[in-house]
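Thread: "does anyone have the structure for this chain?"

Original post by V.I.:
We have the sequence but no experimental structure in hand. Need at least a predicted one for the grant figures.
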Amino acid sequence: MSGVDDDVRRSVARGRETLGAMLSAAQTHLQKVAIAFLIGFLGSFYALWLYVWDRLKADLFAEIPPAAAEETTVIGKTPFEVPLLQAKVALAVGGIVALPVLLYYSREALRERGYWITVDSRWKVALIALLAGLLFLVGASYGYFVFFPLMFAFLAENAVQVGFKPTYSITLWAQFVFLLMLSFGIAAQLPLAMTGLALAGVVRYETFRDKWKYAVIAAFAFGALFSPPDPFTQVLWAVPIVGLYGLSLSLTKVVVTLQRGGSAVDVRRVLRERWRAILAVPTVVAGAVAALIVAGFGGFFNRTVVPAIPYFSPEEPVFKYIGPMLGLPRDLAIAVVAGATFLAVLVLAVAYYVYRAIEAAAATRGRAGDPTAIDLGSLDAAGVRAAPHETFRDLSEEEAVAQASKATSDGEPEKARAILDRFDEAEAEAAAEAEADDADGATTADTALDAEHPGEPGLEADAEDDSNPFLSRTTGVVDAFTTEETTEEDVGGYYYDIAFVLDSLRSRAFLLVGLFMAVLAGTFLWLYQGGIDRIRADFLARLPAGVRAEDVGIVALHPTEALVFEIKLSTLFAVLAILPLVLYYAWPALRERGITAGDRRVLIVPRSRPQ
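Reply from O.Q.:
Generated one for you, tokens below.
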């Protein structure tokens, strides 16, 4: 019998057929596809050879201290390692360049099989693609210009400090750099992804807003996954992602608000009602800017503020003379700057008041239409108490608590109390309805059973036992330990044993984790501050007489190799430190499960068997 079912065979066959149809349809244009591939391949190959490697080393090692920079090199372990790496990268680039050309010339075959997506508005697709490309470029640029220089400075200095020589393999180094840069580019798509999901209705904006704590945890978790295992680089990875999530959340709120209430707002009416404030704000700002220029604020800033800023020493003045810079007389130049400031602030003021009107219209529409679409965050305490009960029936307990916590943090305890009260009322009402439905269902079931099996004894008790999920589940658990078929080979039995032992350690978890972290941190600090160098010196001192110590060196082929070694060794010492304590605390549970016996105060001592 084959391990592949019919669905998998059909899927593979359709894939082969589609690929064959694509190549067949594009065979008259394969020369163009090949030319695109060769352009990408040869261009990237020679760019890597002539320019990219040197530029990468110069930019990414720019922040390494001079003493560590002299020891840091990138090498090829074999004569063909560099050409093969360049060929691999060039193949990937050539394939990426040729793929759009191949898809374009095979679009008819894909359209016949339903794989070609037809869009009504091409400019929207082009705009989304442009935004995705720009976001990817921003994320990759942060990794290249900010993250990598600081990270390599830390890693190289750490390796030199512990007695290793940072001699990176070019393959490992390039893979590390490219994968991390790719992770930054993908993470930068967060604003586009959140906005698209909210607009499509897949994930509501309120979900993104209420689950921000999980997003922060996820950012640091992915930071631990993609970056080296040290707090410094993990923070460099995670903090920008958290900030990006906050920016994406604000952008998503604006876009969703425009979608919900944009059609209900008359912009001319907003301008008529708010024209005083709209004109007052840019007038005040433009007047303040002109007054500061006339008073000589630019010269004061250059002379007093700039020298006091640490790590900032521009070659040219931050604020220059406005007249020569614009090529106009000073008074006219000041007027031009004030006018440009007025127009810029005017646009922002109009956008702000229009958005506020749209936001109010969206909240009103939610209250007038679907009760579940009401945004509790935009209501006050009175609005919460006046909201329909359907609004709270669809809330989960976590969402209600999150809304109340947000209201409390915003200084609205009355609103928080109202949210919890309304949620409790909705829960009580739902529980009462469920109890009534259960009672009706039980009555109907009993009537049907009596009619089908009149006078049959024991039927009611059996039905009651079967309808109790707790009893049925408990019976299944007990059967795992009592049935005769259960043997020592039963995986389920081992699972329950392990769960029972771990549960017995729950009360001691704080002590165990605290000791584990203390030993791990202490060992890591000792290794980081020269402990490995002492171990290396002791090792070199024990070499045979015919081997000179200066001829033996320890190199780090991967950028994180020294740091990972320190983490692994520290973790091993921490595990060994808590292992006796774990055995001591788990001994009663192990003895109860029949896994061990004897006195727990005596470990790893064989008992004497009776003669």
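V.I.: this helps a lot. Residues 286-369 form one domain.
O.Q.: and Strands lie at 73-75, 165-169, 555-556.
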